[in-house]
Design a protein that fits this description.
Layout (H helix, E strand, L loop, with lengths): L2 H8 L4 H6 L1 H12 L12 E6 L5 H10 L7 E4 L12 E7 L5 H12 L3 E6 L2 H10 L3 E3 L10 H14 L7 H18 L9 H9 L3 E7 L3 H13 L6 E5 L14 H4 L2 E7 L5 H16 L3 E6 L5 H23 L7 H11 L1
Parallel strand pairs: 1-2, 1-3, 3-4, 4-5, 6-7, 6-8, 8-9
Helix pairs in contact: 3-7, 3-8, 4-7, 4-10, 8-13, 9-13, 10-13
Bound molecules: fructose -6-phosphate (F6R).
Length: 348
């Protein structure tokens, strides 16, 4: 059996198709967001992006991308309730693929109590039902698949919303450039490209039977988290991520023990040439410390000529790596039984 046939057998719900289609999804998300109803009211004084897991990462990506130029406080909120500062002048964007996530519904209740302006991004569920019932805007996107595979929608819809309330620049050109850079990079990363010419498949080989540790800062900090969470949810494997510059103030002191784990760790640094040069210097210096201590290390240079392109090509690369790691472990990349079981146990 050739590799593609084996992948298809292990992947009956076609996670690979979702990953291959991510550049187009990013574009569709923006286009959809430009045609949806906005919440009423003046320009907000603060923005809270609330969601969990695969529906929160789009918020992290938007916050890292917009962060340096965003004119007002921007908080990504994972959890119950909302910060006390979320009053009537705040815009709360609730992102939940299913619309049924307990923490996000709790944030909805908190936003209603504090009379914050509210916008939901979802495929439906209880969140959409509540918004419809109360006449609040709910941006629905069509997506049959896992929330984590809809990251292009959750990111681009948030970006479009922030643009349309006057807080972010028009970004269609940026989105198109990012999608093009992803498509260009994709030639080498797709399953059709043999291992010898496919860096994502080789990286998955480096992770196999090792502990992946992903390290990045700035624009790519949420991408390191994405690599880590995709390794968990797609490959069903342990991994961890660290954020720079913070890791240089603690993690680097704790790299001596246990030796058996250190020699089985594969530390991968993600670097974006368009991000701060101080971060690039930190990647070099931090990598040096880990190498001296016996860690296996590597650096991925993000492709693309714009900040958004570098963020998204690097994310896409990690999605492919996690997929090939799933294939190498012989697991179905789609179901997340442990997450479902937890949700149903907590529902009681
Ligand atoms: C599953 C996934 C999860 C969910 C999370 C929240 O693919 O990515 O992390 O995103 O459990 O669920 P939703 O997105 O439905 O609010």
């Amino acid at each position: 059996m050739n590799d593609i046939d084996r992948f298809t057998q292990l992947d009956p719900q076609d996670m690979r198709g979702h990953i291959d289609g991510l550049p187009s999804q990013l574009e569709s998300g923006w286009e959809l967001g430009m045609n949806q109803p906005l919440p009423d009211g003046p320009r907000p004084k603060m923005v809270i992006l609330a969601g969990m897991g695969g529906s929160a990462i789009g918020a992290d990506l938007a916050a890292a991308y917009l962060g340096p130029s965003f004119p007002i406080p921007l908080i990504v909120w994972r959890g119950y309730e909302l910060p006390a500062s979320a009053g009537p002048e705040a815009l709360v964007i609730l992102s939940s693929h299913s619309g049924n996530t307990e923490e996000t519904l709790s944030a909805y209740d908190a936003a209603r109590r504090s009379r914050a302006r509210l916008l939901a991004i979802t495929t439906g569920g209880e969140l959409a039902r509540r918004c419809d019932h109360e006449g609040l805007p709910a941006w629905r996107f069509e997506h049959r698949g896992q929330p984590r595979a809809a990251v292009g929608f959750s990111f681009a819809l948030i970006l479009a919303a922030l643009h349309r309330v006057g807080l972010a620049e028009e970004a269609w050109g940026e989105i198109q450039a990012a999608a093009e850079a992803m498509r260009l990079q994709q030639h080498d990363l797709r399953a059709e490209t043999p291992v010898a010419r496919n860096p994502a498949r080789r990286m998955a080989g480096q992770f196999l039977d090792r502990f992946p540790l992903i390290i990045a800062g700035g624009l790519l900090a949420p991408v390191a988290r994405r690599w880590r969470t995709q390794i968990a949810e797609v490959a069903k494997a342990v991994a961890q991520f660290e954020e720079l510059p913070e890791a240089d103030h603690n993690m680097v002191a704790g790299v001596d023990h246990p030796e058996s784990l250190i020699t089985r760790t594969m530390a991968v640094f993600l670097r974006a040439s368009l991000d701060s040069p101080r971060l690039a210097a930190r990647v070099e210096a931090t990598r040096h410390i880990l190498m001296v201590e016996g860690f296996n290390t590597d650096v991925i240079e993000a492709a693309g000529a714009t900040r958004l392109a570098q963020q998204w090509t690097c994310l896409h690369y990690g999605d492919y790596v996690a997929y090939y790691l799933a294939m190498a472990y012989g697991v179905d990349p789609t179901p997340v039984a442990a997450i479902e079981e937890l949700k149903s146990r907590l529902r009681g």
